[in-house]
Amino acid sequence: MSDAAAKSVQDERRSRLIRNGVLAVLALIVVLFPLIGDASMENTMILALIFAIGASGLNIITGYTGYLSLSQGAFLGIGAYVAAILGRSMPDISPFVWMPVAGLTAALLAMLLGLVTYRSRGASFVIITIAFLFLVQFVATQWVPVTNGTAGITFPLPTWSNAVWGNWPFHLVLVGLLALSILVSWWIRRTKFGTGLIAIREDEGKAGSVGINAPIYKLLAFGLSALFVGMAGTVYGYYLSFVDPIGMFSILNSVIIVLAIILGGRGTLLGPVLGAFILVPVDAFANNYLGGGNIRLLVFGGLLVLLVVLLPKGIIPTVQLLLEKRRTKGTVGLTGSITALADRPLPPPREKLAPVGDTMLLQVTGLEKSFGALKAVDGCTFGVPEGSITALIGPNGSGKTTVFNLISGLMTPDAGEIVLDGERIEGLAPWGRAHRGIGRTFQMTRLFREMTVLENVVAPLRDFQFRQLGLGAVSGSEAEKAEEFLEFVGMQAYRDARAGSLSYGQQKLVELAQILVLDPKLIMLDEPAGGINPTLIERMGGLIRELNDQGKTFLLVEHNMPFVLGLCNPVRVLARGQVIAEGSPAEIQKDPLVLDAYLGDDYMLENRSGDGAAAKGEGR
Amino acid sequence: MIALTQTLILGVLAGAVYALMASGLTLIFGVMRVINIAHGAFAVLAAFLTYSLWSAFGLDPLLAIPFIMVVMFGIGWVVYQGAVRHSRGSHVSMTVLVTFGIALVLEGVMGIIWGNRSASIRTDYTDASVEVGPFFFPQVQLLAAAIAVVVLIALYFLLNKTWLGRAIRAASVNESGALLVGVSVAAVAALTFAIGIATLGAGGAMLGAIQPIVPGTHYQWIARLLAIIVLGGFGSLPGAVIGAMIIGVTEMLATTYVGSAWPVAVPFLIIFIVLIVRPQGIMGARLREDLVS
Amino acid sequence: MAASRATRIAALTAGLSLLVGVSACATDSGGTTDDPIVIGASLPLTGEFSQGGLDTQQGYEVWVEMTNEAGGILGRDVEIVIRDDATNQNTVVTNYNNLISVDDVDLLLGSQSSLLNIPASAVAERNEMVFVCPSCGSPDMFNRGFEFIFFSQQAVATDQARVFAEWIAALPEDQRPKTAAYPSLDDPFAGPVVDGAEAILSAAGIETVYKDIYPATTKNFDSIVAAIAASGAEMVVQGAQFEDGVNFVRSMNRAGYEPDILYQSSSPTYGQQYFDGVGEDNTQGVFFSTSYSSVASTPGNAEFLAKYEEMFGGIPPEDAADGFAAGEVLKAAAEAVGGIDDQRALADWIRANEVQTILGTLSWNENGSPKGDFLVGQWQDGSAQIVLPAEAATSETIFRWRGAAFE
Questions:
Q1: A533 φ/ψ angles, rounded to the nearest 5 degrees
Q2: Measured at the alpha carbon of residue B78, what is the angle toward residues B73 and B79, in degrees to the nearest 5?
Q3: For position B189, which CATH number holds?
Q4: Which residues form the Leucine-binding protein domain (chain C) (predicted)?
Q5: Among the listed residues C305, C146, C29, the one whose alpha carbon sits nearest the alpha carbon of residue A241
Q6: Contact A241 C102 (CB under 8 A)
Q7: Contact yes or no for A406/A377 (Cβ under 8 A)
Q8: Which residues of chain C have pLDDT under 70?
Q9: In this structure, which CATH number among 3.20.20.30, 3.90.1150.10, 3.10.290.10, 3.40.50.2300 belongs to the domain C159-291+374-392?
Q10: Strands (E), C345-382
Q11: What is the pLDDT of residue A599?
């Protein structure tokens, strides 16, 4: 076993060495390319560099953050225009000087576009980006005093001697920009900022509930995504010697950039660059040897369809997957086993339920929420006493999950108050509530599936500060704490497994560990015992009790009656969006209103309790 | 006042044809959650087919409509089975990319077959008008609007009064439920796509009669059609009709009173503003993935 | 010519070691003189400007054919390499770089439209190669201090309608229109034509009652025409490319609007296509500016017409003739200089001399812009005639649109 492990470490070191060597050689070839290629190859290289910078930038929002955009080409054009416009009034200054201004302008406009993601994602966001591109083109066409309209603006010819220096200055500036762009991408992927972006990609709602301030993250991501492509736009315009609305804002530029990302591999560091370096020569080839215009459309249109259908992951992830498969052939992965859970002794079950204090940690008053004609929550009022394990039960459709969503901020109430620890929070964003001490899990677990278990657990943020964005994603005391929590829930053996590969019950445990990192005052669990096996139910109960002993307050939604009755006090019963009964488990069981509510909805109380009873029998 | 009325007349007439063309787009979205970016390209394709029938056999564009609809139905079916179907499992933005790819392929194919020059159909009614008092109603637009109304009514009847229509609506509301009552969702999806493209075919044929056609104009069409269904609400047929009228009239008003450059921006501005301010449009539901906040 | 790779390597090394001053010179032209002269051009054969691009291609091909039949240039056969830039600026730059460095062409001809020729001419300028372009009327092209670019038509866009406008302005009071509408395509080629005309006409007291710029995507002109009709303009001066001009006329028919005078800048020069597009009745009396007339008796025109008819059929459109003329300019320069290797000598010769072409006599300013006047044409009884200036006119009478002749 350890031999094999040593061998695999060695293998990995060797393959990393080979990989770095190959990358270094490729980088050297790119840097010194003008020595090798003729003018036409150089030209292709320059375009490839420009598109690689564009793709590398777009990767930050499309690959990391999950927002597909067809407007990246617009920022290339904006960068070119900024330099052209400034250059027109100051013709004696080298256009290269305007690069930072162009980059910042592009970044600011991209952030403006990023604001849109506050209201729209998925397909409608893609459509908006197309509209954005055409609107920018429209502005460039119509704002004649500044942009010179359709006639465009010419750049001066380069001042250096073509015979001596050729395209070296263009080439080297672009290589530098690409290097910077890759470096920034690399840095992002390794920081809290990057983890936050990926969390947003995986599940934006969930990201908010674990304290990630999505709008700020997204705005920064949009800004960074356009910064370098804006700077490259200056070089592009200077190189072409001319900007005009049709050429600069051609949607094909955006298509090539998006294609590059998909082809190379979304979310990978070098995939987009690889994609660009494949596509631009293909473009040149299609144009020069296959007959040009219409064929280019066929090639790129066809590639788009084929790639999405056949190779949606892209080259680099597919190759990695194949390599991974080859390497792990014959070894057994960490899946399914729950033996590790037995490692830690459980605290003994308590005879007496926790005493309930008088102060309410959470007080909900007159909460209302409608979906169209349906009143899901209708004047809901209840409190969660400090230090209690409070249960919220009720028949299906009684509005429990909606109440949870309203408390955690995933939905905004139509009316009502939510007070946490003396502070009104109903107007706060989800992350704001997370920062103030609410941690919640979801009925269907919502882990960030593509992240490892450890990454999932370090993802939550207890507050928001700009400097924290730059911290390492998995580092220092936080990582230690995360590992502690993983150990606490008994999942430390899985720390490097992909979250999506875990069983449902395991995911529930990881989700619990995840919100513990927030150090919440109030832990809200949506059906912690739902859909998992009896051993895990028992385990979950034990963990809740232990945490409660340490002073955590709980609010649970749960259908498993034995679980609720054995664990919680007080219990609140919800029906048709209102709390119809409150009290200790014993009181609730006797309340005729409660029985009515359940029976009235054809709810099979016996059935549900039957499940739980089996669990109870096995567990004790 | 005369100028304003004339502008409104032209806007409504244009809107009728827009409505017919957008009906397929909104239908396809309603059933499949696929935003067919290739819709504009299919329209131009139908127009080119009509042009070929007219120039080769002298077939009147309006008489060609039934034939074009059948052909477009077939093309829609093939494209769906060949490409769109395979992207349905993936993320919605991926289906946008696939249909965008199809649009580019169609543009290229049309360029190869018909060239990149503009083609226009001229019949005795294409340049004539019916004059009523100080107003003129271009004949071809009147005919096109009438046909659009007929096809739209037929489509409405198909969706609301036939078994197929019920199956389509069932599939659009609840996929697993439809499966349960014996509706093959896969077949319904393919059929819906093909029907959507066929009704578009009728619109495309009239497009060929109304104005010259060039392969590259499909961007403008998809922008306009998207704006219509964004405005009317994704998936809503009555919404598409209302949206089409609004866009038609707004474009004409913008041309007359703001400047002829503005109609270009109208669809994009509408898309931008509506999707941000009221993503569900006038009569539709929000896209599911919009429900973040 | 392009510097060889060795030169650039040497240059880099020299530069890096701070040894300024590189004396290496391009070493080239080892082939025998019997090799064909290769001419390179990129044209928008697809995409937005494909109409003009395809026509220009025909002109280039006719010129190559006729040149070779007449013994080539300096006794060498001529070959032309034409690439498609799909109306895309990236591609036009790629194409000219390719033509220069991969195909190693000897001479260049320009692309179609100012939008493509502006970036293309910069590539030529950097490589110090003569760039004769058949269609680059935007005045912006000639204020960049370039030394190798030449426009092979009679005038830049701003001056194209001058002859027409001055004639209208000089009409007797009772025949002169009082109001005019100026719709124009948003294009660096069309807009300036209308601006130039309006300046002259409004100075002559003709009131501007409508002026607007419509984008290239406009296909339906009904509402634009309705607005112009409502303005009551007696004359319409339209800056049109091709199909917008056709659509405009069709919309005027639908709206029942018939101004006395109709001028369209480029559309009517598209020969048969324009004729088919608007229908014969509607062509009657349409004014246009043109660099070329198929009925002109310029040197070589008869042969050009015959060859075009043989190769492509029909009457050549203006862009084909312009392409042909660009070739004639290049040939004249090469033969006068007696060689093609010294591009600077070719450029200097063109700047200093006149060239007889099928468009007439062309000559150039210092900056490469032409110093001549466009012809004014008019469709009469189904064919395009030249009506102004008088010395070039092929028809004595001048008509109103679909109406009576002027006195």
A1: -75, 160
A2: 100
A3: 1.10.3470
A4: 36-382
A5: C146
A6: no
A7: yes
A8: 1-33
A9: 3.40.50.2300
A10: 355-357, 360-362, 375-380
A11: 58
Q: How far is C44 from chain B (nearest CA, A)?
A: 10
- Report residue A465 as tokens: 């500060």
> pTM for the whole thing?
0.82
Query: Residue B174 is part of which domain span?
Result: 2-290
Q: How far apart are CA A225 and CA A75, in angstroms?
A: 9
C-alpha A115/C-alpha A119 separation (Å) is: 8
| pLDDT computed for residue B280 by the predictor | 67
Examine the domain organization and report whether A208 and A92 are in the same domain.
yes
Tokens of B291: 């429900």
> What CA–CA distance (Å, rounded) separates B235 from B168?
12
Q: What is the rounded CA–CA span in Å between residue C356 and residue C366?
A: 19
Q: How far is CA A185 from CA A181, A456, B197, C186, in A?
A: 6, 20, 42, 41
The per-residue DSSP string of A75-119 comes to: HHHHHHHHHHHHHHH-TTS-GGGGHHHHHHHHHHHHHHHHHHTTT
Cis-peptide, bond into residue C389, ω within 30° of zero: yes
CA distance A548 to A538: 15
Q: How far apart are CA A188 and CA A77, in angstroms?
A: 25
Cβ proximity of B191 and B159 under 8 Å:
no
Which H helix or E strand runs over C327? helix C318-337
For chain C, which residues make up each domain, given as ranges? Answer: 5-156+298-362, 159-291+374-392
Name the amino acid, one letter, at A336: G
> Taking Cα atoms as reference points, which of A620, A529, A555, A155 lies closest to residue A362?
A555
For chain A, what is the mean pLDDT?
81
Q: If you count residue pairs, one on A and one on B, with CB atoms under 8 Å apart, how many are there?
A: 142
For A251, A378, A381, B120, C103, the CA distances from A411, given in Å and listed in that order, are 37, 15, 17, 54, 64
Q: Residue B116: list chain C partners with CB under 8 A.
A: 45-47, 50-51, 54
User: Would you say B89 and B237 are in contact if contact means Cβ atoms under 8 Å apart?
Assistant: no
Evaluate the CA torsion angle A485, A490, A492, A494 in order and state its sign: negative
Q: Which token pair is A420? A: 């946490």
The answer to whether the CB of C326 falls within 8 A of the CB of C152 is: yes
Which structure tokens are listed for A606? 């016996």
Phi, psi of A111 (to 5 degrees): -65, -35
C358's tokens: 């099928």
Collapse the DSSP code of A315 into the 3-class scheme (helix H, G, I; strand E, B; otherwise coil) and give the result: helix
Within 8 A of A152 by CB-CB distance, chain C residues are 115, 118, 140, 188
**B95 interface with A at CB cutoff 8 Å:** yes
Chain C hits for B211, CB-CB cut-off 8 Å, are 219-220, 247
Which residues of chain A are within 8 Å of residue B94 when distances are taken between CB atoms? 68, 308, 312
Distance of CA A58 to the CA centre of its chain: 15
What pLDDT, in 10s, does the model give residues A279-316?
A: 999 888 887 677 667 888 888 889 888 888 888 888 88
Residues A311 and A363 in one domain: no
> In whole angstroms, what is the distance from residue A88 CA to residue C22 CA?
32
Q: What are phi and psi of B274, to 5 degrees?
A: -65, -45
Q: Which residue has the tokens 């609506």?
A: B169
Cα separation, A300 vs A465, whole angstroms: 43
CATH number of residue A110's parent domain? 1.10.3470
Paired with A583 in beta bridges are A571
Within a 13 Å sphere around the CA of A496, how many CA atoms are in the beta-carbon half? 2
Task: Tell me whether B260 touches chain A (CB under 8 Å).
Answer: no
Residue B161, burial from CB neighbour count under 10 angstroms (0-12, 13-18, 19+): exposed
Least confident of A214-223, A274-283, A426-435: A426-435
Classify C134 as helix, strand or coil: coil
Identity of residue A393? I
Is pLDDT at B269 greater than 70 in this prediction?
Answer: yes
